[in-house]
Structure formats: C-alpha cells, structure tokens
Amino acid sequence: xxxxxxxxxxxxxxxxxxxxxxxxxxxxxxxxxxxxxxxxxxxxxxxxxxxxxxxxxxxxxxxxxxxxxxxxxxxxxxxxxxxxxxxxxxxxxxxxxxxxxxxxxxxxxxxxxxxxxxxxxxxxxxxxxxxxxxxxxxxxxxxxxxxxxxxxxxxxxxxxxxxxxxxxxxxxxxxxxxxxxxxxxxxxxxxxxx
Length: 194
Ligand SMILES: [Fe+2]
Hints:
With 194 residues, this protein is of the alpha+beta class. Helix content is 21%, strand content 30%. α2 packs across α3 (32-39).
C-alpha cells in the first residue's frame, strides 16, 4: 500500500454516496467534527476505524487506502471481458470476471492488457478431431518462457499452465469462437481471435 487514507478520498466517496458528514459520523461512531477534520487534512482516521469507514463508504479497505475504488462494469459476467492478473514477484496468475482490487506478495496487481499476438509469439492452431492443438514457437528456458495459454469463450475459461523446459503447446476442446491468450513472462499477455 503506497499511502494511508486521505481526506480527499473520504470526501469524494462520502459525497458519491450522498452522505452528510453527520450521517457518516453517526454510522462509524465519531463526531461530525472529526469527519470534517479528516476531510480538511487536520487529522486522520484511527486505524481501528478503517473497517467501519470502508463499509460505510461501500468500498474495500484496500480501495479506501489506495483512493481508487473499483467498479465492476461486467456485471453480466461475460467471460470474454474477463481479466488476468499476474504477480511479478511469485508468478501467481489470477483471473477475474471483471475489474477487481487484487494484490499478491504485497503488490497491487493491475489487470494485464492483452496486445495482439506478435511475430515472436505466433500461435499455431491445428484442428485435431474435436480439439484444437495449439503450439507456440518460443523459448521455454527458466528465464524466458510461456507461462500460460487460455482459451476464453463467453461462458468458459480453459486455462493451461506451462512450465520452463516443458513444451509450449496444449490441446483445447473446441468451444466455439473466442480469444486465445498467450502469456510470456518477459513480453506479457497477447491474444488472438479463434
Ligand atoms: Fe517472449
């Protein structure tokens, strides 16, 4: 976490919820003057109040501290609009149906932005019976490798973890049109229509 909650964040979230300083103060058990002091940078909420303050403002504690509340715009849960997150420290991979506040190893993870597949990460897709055999011609050394492949359609995510010194290939049962994702530990996330 970069910083503590700021008065500007409290004010913006409180006004967004159309709460008065008095209403917020009553909900969390402090005086209206205390809330006013926070918002004008003349004081900070005690750490024991953060849970209650976050709940009253309808955000997570992490969002309250970062000042970046997250709104999931993909409420229908369309998997075609889902996001991948990858921890730069431990390599953990997380998937979310929409936007989320996700952290791992103490790092707040941004959603990976997928680029178009480039020449160095070309995907070969061959039909084999009712499957698609996907190959990436790419290094699989300990320092530079394809970390995962995913085949995403509107209702299903097929995710295959790959490992250094293994083969950069897998088979996916055919599920219709969607996105084929490839993640390289050095070059990031790329995708192509399938
Ligand atoms: Fe690469």
